[in-house]
């Protein structure tokens, strides 16, 4: 075995969190190798050209949660990352009306008043309530959760920090926080807003990527999770990465290489090597072996421990908890190359909100029915769609005058039901076509002529996400974002500090705190713990403290 | 021999001077696009601070293409056998090295070496220059030109200017039938008679400035507007451009320095060296205004230094006082902004030269938070000017986006 097979750390999986952790380690002076099974880096933050002239953000499609501290620490703009905010959005209705979520505050007030005069203040109160919770929770994103059960001195300090924040919040807001962490987005919205269409528009963020319905407890937090990002300090704002989401991983990869990092693609980690309870390296699918005292797994907790570490190295209770970890796939996606800008007759020509997120679900009841379909193993007959046309803003996505549309579809099961049996294999060509038809028909209803504009479409089911990206069951968050799987419970109680029962093996992906979305927080937090263990924290410490 | 520079004299107009702001040739288009109704006075002209949302306009500069009316800028034409000698007496750079068809960024100083103004100098021909700047320089140019054989004209009202800036700006030109694939940065072209296009601008990104007679202004606007429809073209106001120029590291008169001719307090004057622009002073060339003083200045360490600061956190450091090692006041921020593309909190700051070279700087930032002022001492680091200078800005031929 040659020297070149030895590293200070190996990152298994070149997704955005793996790359983030790799960057921090390389910048702290470690010799780091990233191993990726695909011939491209980025995991679920990718841009690919599947139809000549069009760029798809194949999986994740918008950007907001990416921690500004990480962007700054790693100089990502210098490495080519440009995030362009988009503004506005709309939900269209069958009867030819719509609710326009204007980015202009006054225009939004007028629009809400048009549909429901009392909801103007209701929406205002809702926004303040959400923002108060965001203020509370955002600082926790870049902190390692404390272990409340077996506290070490650090945990105690962290618990005190948490309690202090609750104290700052005051008794009423603390109660509100509890409600937020446990309530359903439907119940929560019912408390503020009357108009069904406005509620439906706002509720979408509560179910995206989640195997829950709008009236399932826990979905209010999922909404919060989607609100706590920001673009340039505008909390709750979302943007496009210029050139698609691959620009995020592209910039991370360049930052990593600039720091001296090495990358192996086209062959994934087959086995994480463990000797006497210590990690020693990885064996790849192609037979190559690399050694390192630290292995950082960007794969989800199930894939890491049930697929790539031999069970003999893991304690029973840990394995059991990992097996129980909820990671159900609930969404699909269609990426579409369009010959022209689709028409939305309800909207004024060239309305600015058409550059935002567009939807077609009219009420919470309709959203709940979409969930009912999923829970019995069918894709939704009337799915919730989150459609965006990034090419309206980003000139790199499609030729001039042509457009690229990304359609996120909720719900789609991982293992569709057929003849009383559920099986991922039921996603055959016929099923995929039928699924895509359900979505395209629904868009066609609010945008007549839409189907004629489709030049190419990439249909992605949870099974595709699992096979291509490696997300177990195609869950986009590497595990659901419900309270039983958040903070010190993420991924499993007792292991929320990115360490695992195997010494030297760390979890750096979204299975760990604070969870999914292109946030880079798990990767950055995990890197801090790895560097702490390796006693190399000094260089990065200040950056983290500042955060 | 007539020792006074020739001057184009037009008959004095009989219309009484009007109160308020004058319109530029593009005014009808700007007014029609304005939803923000946020206007400002730029050299006496009505100029948009923002037409819509500043954020959208800023990102159009960095992501698409933008039109910004630069007609209010003062424009002077210097022509004649002695034109090069006159311009060389004015500015601190050596204009003899500026070839016809090229543009240079220039400064000029008073006899004490204090900066009067900065601007762009276009060499339209061997004996033909145009100077674009913020401040009136008509009389000053005549002072400089005394005894030389040149004609000096104030073209401010005779030339409409339109800045087309952003990564798709060349694609817009191309779609408008004005492709200039070979035009390098700081180059000048005349793709059609009467339309001069220079590859210049204040955004730090790919961009052009278009110059023509005011009569053709609206037709040019409409032509670009149609061409840019599928390329994200937007009209913008100054607020968006101001963010871009700080991010690109460009100084502005009235912010980073006080034009000495307008300063009540002589101590407010600054030399090019203090502004960090010593490289624009050519000590080797023959006499130019302020040369003696600048040679003296070049030999010693400047008292102050204009620097770019990277400031911890995200709070806007506009107007912040900067402290060095605890409580010693070392200077102040002249312009500050959160750089939305570079994702850094930056500021131009004028510091004592010693502080500018050392660590341990802190900016005292006051933020109004829901009725209460909060004070933050944010640590600050001196960094290279220009936190966003993408390669696409310099690529020739320019990219599609």
Automatic annotation (TrEMBL), chain A:
<dbReference type="InterPro" id="IPR036188">
    <property type="entry name" value="FAD/NAD-bd_sf"/>
</dbReference>
<comment type="function">
    <text>Probable oxidoreductase that may play a role as regulator of mitochondrial function.</text>
</comment>
<protein>
    <recommendedName>
        <fullName>Pyridine nucleotide-disulfide oxidoreductase domain-containing protein 2</fullName>
    </recommendedName>
</protein>
<dbReference type="GO" id="GO:0016491">
    <property type="term" value="F:oxidoreductase activity"/>
</dbReference>
<comment type="subunit">
    <text>Interacts with COX5B; this interaction may contribute to localize PYROXD2 to the inner face of the inner mitochondrial membrane.</text>
</comment>
<feature type="domain" description="Amine oxidase">
    <location>
        <begin position="18"/>
        <end position="421"/>
    </location>
</feature>
<dbReference type="InterPro" id="IPR002937">
    <property type="entry name" value="Amino_oxidase"/>
</dbReference>
<dbReference type="Pfam" id="PF01593">
    <property type="entry name" value="Amino_oxidase"/>
</dbReference>
Automatic annotation (TrEMBL), chain B:
<protein>
    <submittedName>
        <fullName>Aminomethyltransferase family protein</fullName>
    </submittedName>
</protein>
<feature type="binding site">
    <location>
        <position position="209"/>
    </location>
    <ligand>
        <name>substrate</name>
    </ligand>
</feature>
<dbReference type="InterPro" id="IPR029043">
    <property type="entry name" value="GcvT/YgfZ_C"/>
</dbReference>
<dbReference type="InterPro" id="IPR028896">
    <property type="entry name" value="GcvT/YgfZ/DmdA"/>
</dbReference>
<dbReference type="InterPro" id="IPR027266">
    <property type="entry name" value="TrmE/GcvT-like"/>
</dbReference>
<dbReference type="InterPro" id="IPR013977">
    <property type="entry name" value="GcvT_C"/>
</dbReference>
<dbReference type="InterPro" id="IPR006222">
    <property type="entry name" value="GCVT_N"/>
</dbReference>
<dbReference type="Pfam" id="PF08669">
    <property type="entry name" value="GCV_T_C"/>
</dbReference>
<feature type="region of interest" description="Disordered">
    <location>
        <begin position="1"/>
        <end position="22"/>
    </location>
</feature>
<feature type="domain" description="Aminomethyltransferase C-terminal">
    <location>
        <begin position="304"/>
        <end position="364"/>
    </location>
</feature>
<dbReference type="Pfam" id="PF01571">
    <property type="entry name" value="GCV_T"/>
</dbReference>
<feature type="domain" description="GCVT N-terminal">
    <location>
        <begin position="52"/>
        <end position="281"/>
    </location>
</feature>
